[in-house]
Amino acid sequence: MNNLIELYGANTGNSFRAAIALEEAGILYTAKKVDLWAHEQRDIPYKALNPAGKVPTLVDHSETPALIINQSNAIIQYADAKVPGQLAPIWPGPETVRVYDRYFFFVTDVIAPSHAAFFLRQAGLDDAAAVMSERVIEQLIFAEGFLTEEFMAGDRFSMADISAFTIASSVRDRLDWKSHPRLADWFHAIEARPAVQRGLNAFQ
Ligand SMILES: N[C@@H](CCC(=O)N[C@@H](CS)C(=O)NCC(=O)O)C(=O)O
To answer: Atom 15 of ligand 1 has which residue's CA nearest to it?
Structure first.
């Protein structure tokens, strides 16, 4: 626990992503649960930190003025910059390039369609939402090809595993794991990591 760094979040993939990144980087923080059902994300004090009324939000009071980060993937970048070498090999080098390449694959080609599916469903466009949801599954299956070694971007855990794991978790009931044993083994190995478990339980 560290009162200088606060992570506001809830039991959602975006919040888990941020918490897992802090845990894997070994950054001490205080988790602050935002009750989405009670619409706390829309309360004025919280919206002063996150005008979009979304989770997660990281506040680093060790900086003056306090550093406020509203995007889960920017929180991953923050954790990587604060403790270099934990979430990606230190730049430059081909291993680092591969980590960033795969990380952005999950951010833009898998997580983004999943967000799009959510909004299409909310708009009542169920057929379009289904196309986007299917795309998420297809892209995760495609990513099984990345697993030539133990992790999504080589032989060490990285931010690519964080982005991949959180989106794979959100569709775990729809993925045909039996037909994708390498993906299944990777998923279970990531899920079993103590820091990942701490991140998943941060907002209980
Ligand atoms: N791009 C943002 C997305 C954040 C986001 O959409 N958060 C959702 C939960 S997954 C949220 O706070 N929803 C509450 C609401 O919209 O009222 C990120 O990656 O952090």
So the answer is: 54
